Amino acid sequence: MPRLTRRQLAALVFLTLFWGLNWPIMKSAVSDYPPFAFRALSMLMGLPCLALGLLAMRVPFRIARRHWPELVTLAVTNMVVWHVFLMLALPSLSSGRAAILGYTMPVFSALWGLTLFGERLTLRQAMGVGAAGLGVVLLLWHEFSRLSGAPMAAATLLFGTAIWALGTQQLRRTRIEAPTLAIAFWMTAITTAVVCVVSLAWEASTWRTPSATTLGAIVYNAVLIFGFCHAAWFILARSLPPVASSISICLIPVLGLLSGALLLGEILHWQDGVAIALIVLAIGAVLLPARSNADKAASAQGKVPAR
Fold this sequence. Notes:
The protein is about 75% helix and about 0% strand. The protein is mainly alpha-helical. α2 crosses α9, α3 packs antiparallel against α7 (about 150-170) and α8 (about 180-205) packs antiparallel against α9 (about 210-240).
């Protein structure tokens, strides 16, 4: 397991903060506005923000023609399915906590790695995946009865989560010879086009001017989610092992849960506290570097290992 660099750690901190706070923001927005129109407007405003970032950092936009089939596949598995299925499911789910189903992604990622790519989990990684999965179950403890009233919505979100997890594995192994930010830009562009078409086909009759609150949510998603978070996530997913990158985002539903309690008045239970502890344990299990053999030998001999 490679150590997190300062840049990766900073990206992870801001990613967790912005994405976690977005759950109650997004939930409130799709309760007041057509969900695909909300997502389409967020992406249409976010794409120029992402483009400005590439221009400021002098990152080339070009993707070689031979890589476009793989790029489209990555866009579908990493973004298109997730965003479409999330917008289909979210309005029907009875609570903000139900959206935490999306963060069963680390478990799906580990299963894809095991079945498709022959990955072997270390004991620490297996413990991390198990702790993260149990934490999500506890977060949903008081929601199972409500989810039973919307089984299709829950299944829809789980399917989107499973495909997102597959995309994370594929992105780690991509052979596209281009900067990750360029890949992120074009995947976002492809997804934007798809979401706009879906909104036009299904919601055109319900389009209207967004309220001030909804417009604020759109701007938040455009600048922070699509302008920053998605790009940061793709960089982490491509630079870290899939299990590590997947587990690393498990604090997002925790922050979403806490901000939902603060902003939407959701009630917290003791299971939520245990879940938070398990998720922190999971992150530590997969992200904290293991001791090297040299360190272990030095410790056994009572020496301080050289750094």
